[in-house]
Design goal:
This protein is mainly α. 80% of the residues lie in helices and 0% in strands.
């Protein structure tokens, strides 16, 4: 994996995390966030 690919993957992960936080709110347990990533991924 190139540095550019790693950077893009990191950007995508952070973006998805922010989207989950916006839609579901703060303070969720890790398992709930993981389930949301699987649903939207």
């Amino acid at each position: 994996m190139t540095k550019k690919e790693v950077t893009q993957l990191s950007y995508d992960i952070v973006g998805a995390s922010i989207q989950v936080h916006k839609e579901l709110g703060p303070g969720l347990m890790e398992n709930i966030n993981y389930q949301q990533f699987k649903t939207n991924g």
